[in-house]
Design a protein that fits this description.
globular, about 70 residues, about 80% helix
Amino acid sequence: MPKVAADVAYLNARENTPHTARMAHDQALGKAMQILLRDDTQVYKQFVENESFKRFVGDMVYALTSQPPQMDA
């Protein structure tokens, strides 16, 4: 999630339409998963081969990264 949230293209796209933001998010998530391939091949394999797992991870990371940061009072 931190790599996706820090992706410059995704950060810029969040200022546009939700559709554009989701497309940029999916690209950033794909890049992050490529990096994960080196560390955890099983997770990467699930992400690439299991569509429901990919959708679950994508939806979860998008929900977490699309919200503005919470400010503590």
